[in-house]
């Protein structure tokens, strides 16, 4: 299992500082949700953790080594990222898309090995996509399409999975479908999952660890009931809310009713 954390991480776009001096340790084998208002730096942090965005200062560490100094293929064998709203080439089938996840493990073109075939088949099966394996990705429903992309990330065979708003533009049924799948994968495969989430109640129900971010700084982190408090919600989101216990799961539920004054 790989370990991911940051030390004194500062991130910027051109001259605009987005994240400053971030120290964040991701719990291994758990689901971590990054929450915060729009523009708080959540997606920027995720990109830096995935080695997509170069730090201005500070470091992202993967297994104790600076991630930006490691070879791309080596990182891709340990960590997979699913960005917001990915698009597949027209006509690409689910199986073809999922097979792309094996690229970091191949030494050349057309070198698909038995292990690659096994991982592709497993990823399609575990995401419930067997009936759609030969269907074009652009002909799938929103939930099916997202499951296909998750299958690709799983075929990569990494112990860490990063997802940037995996339920964006999905209806409630498809949101639940995707989040339950991710939680199942975490519980059954012990994968470390880090996801940017907008819905606080989704974070509370499906995450073990929640990190509340404002202007690139961690305001609070911990178990859902430690983060879902009146004080944190007011400070991070600028809202007043009732916080009640879910009668089925016992996790806190946020019901916003007013902007903070």
Automatic annotation (TrEMBL):
GO terms for biological process: iron ion transport. SUPFAM superfamilies: P-loop containing nucleoside triphosphate hydrolases (SSF52540). It is a peripheral membrane protein. InterPro entries: AAA+_ATPase, ABC_transporter-like_ATP-bd, ABC_transporter-like_CS, P-loop_NTPase, Siderophore_ABC-ATPase. Gene3D superfamilies: P-loop containing nucleotide triphosphate hydrolases. Keywords: ATP-binding, Cell membrane, Ion transport, Iron, Iron transport, Membrane, Nucleotide-binding, Transport. One of its GO terms (molecular function) is ATP hydrolysis activity. It is found in: Cell membrane. It comes from the Bacteria. GO terms for cellular component: plasma membrane. Residues 4-240 form the ABC transporter domain. Its main location: membrane. SMART domains: AAA. This is Ferrichrome ABC transporter, ATP-binding protein FhuC.
């Amino acid at each position: 299992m790989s370990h991911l954390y940051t030390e004194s991480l500062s991130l910027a776009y051109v001259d605009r500082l987005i994240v400053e001096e971030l120290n964040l340790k991701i719990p291994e084998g758990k689901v971590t949700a990054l929450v915060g208002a729009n523009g708080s730096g959540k997606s920027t942090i995720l990109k830096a953790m995935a080695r997509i965005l170069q730090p201005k200062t500070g470091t992202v560490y993967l297994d104790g080594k600076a991630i930006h100094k490691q070879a791309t293929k080596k990182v891709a064998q340990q960590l997979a990222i699913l960005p917001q709203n990915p698009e597949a080439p027209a006509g690409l089938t689910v199986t073809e898309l999922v097979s792309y996840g094996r690229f970091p493990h191949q030494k050349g073109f057309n070198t698909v090995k038995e292990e690659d075939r096994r991982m592709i088949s497993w990823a399609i099966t575990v995401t419930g996509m067997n009936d759609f394996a030969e269907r074009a990705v652009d002909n799938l429903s929103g939930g099916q399409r997202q499951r296909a992309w998750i299958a690709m990330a799983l075929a990569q065979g990494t112990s860490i999975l990063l997802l940037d708003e995996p339920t964006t533009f999905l209806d409630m049924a498809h949101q639940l479908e995707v989040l339950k799948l991710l939680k199942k994968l975490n519980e059954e495969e012990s994968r470390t999952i880090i996801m940017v989430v907008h819905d606080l109640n989704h974070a509370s129900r499906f995450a073990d660890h929640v990190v509340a971010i404002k202007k690139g700084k961690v305001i609070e982190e911990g178990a859902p009931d430690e983060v879902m408090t009146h004080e944190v919600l007011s400070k991070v989101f600028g809202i007043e809310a009732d916080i009640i216990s879910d009668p089925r799961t016992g996790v806190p539920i946020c019901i916003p009713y007013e902007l903070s004054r």
